[in-house]
Amino acid sequence: MSNNTGAIAEGPAHTLSEQELAVWGGFLRTHSKLIRTLDAGLLEEHELPLSSYEVLLYLANGPEEGMRMSELADSVLLSRSGLTRLADRLETAGLIVRRECKSDQRGLLAVITDEGRRTFEEARRTHLAGVRERFLSRLSDAEQRMLGEIWERLLRPA
To answer: Is 6 in a helix, a strand, or coil?
Structure first.
């Protein structure tokens, strides 16, 4: 391999350097631990899993008429069948309702209920406190800005 600027360190293409492994592995472990911890806090305080909280978050902040189920699935990073199962549980709990989409009779809209909004507002305090305590408080303002810029860069198409 040539020694051009930006070239990957010499060695087999199927290995990561110690630094690359530390960055990638650290990201994965940190994400996993944070998600498990935040999920446990919501379950303990509100009997609401993080995945349900995220659905309520998108619906509470979305259009008043609701969101198409397919759009909601993409937003919360669930498969459509996974969202359908989760929506079944949320509807049984009275937190959402599903309605036919007037512009497309094949589509369904998910709409947050008044009970869903109340549950979301209560859970939001717990969730945001957990995010601040377990993640944001451990970073300086400069580090938070830098990470925000990095996440934006990584989300842009290559």
So the answer is: coil
Closest CA to 96 of 78, 104, 84, 81: 84
Which CATH number applies to 19-155?
Answer: 1.10.10.10
Q: Where are the domains of the chain?
A: 19-155
User: Which residues share a beta bridge with 89?
Assistant: none
pLDDT digit string, tens, across residues 47-58? 999 999 999 999
Contacts 24+ apart (CB under 8 A), 121-125: 122/46, 123/42, 123/45, 123/46, 123/48, 123/53, 123/56, 124/53, 124/57
Phi then psi dihedrals of residue 152, to 5 deg = -60, -45
Q: Which of these, 50, 43, 88, 45, lies nearest to 69 by C-alpha position? A: 88
Query: CA 41, 44, 46, 49 torsion: positive or negative?
Result: positive
**pTM score, whole prediction:** 0.83
CA distance 155 to 153: 5
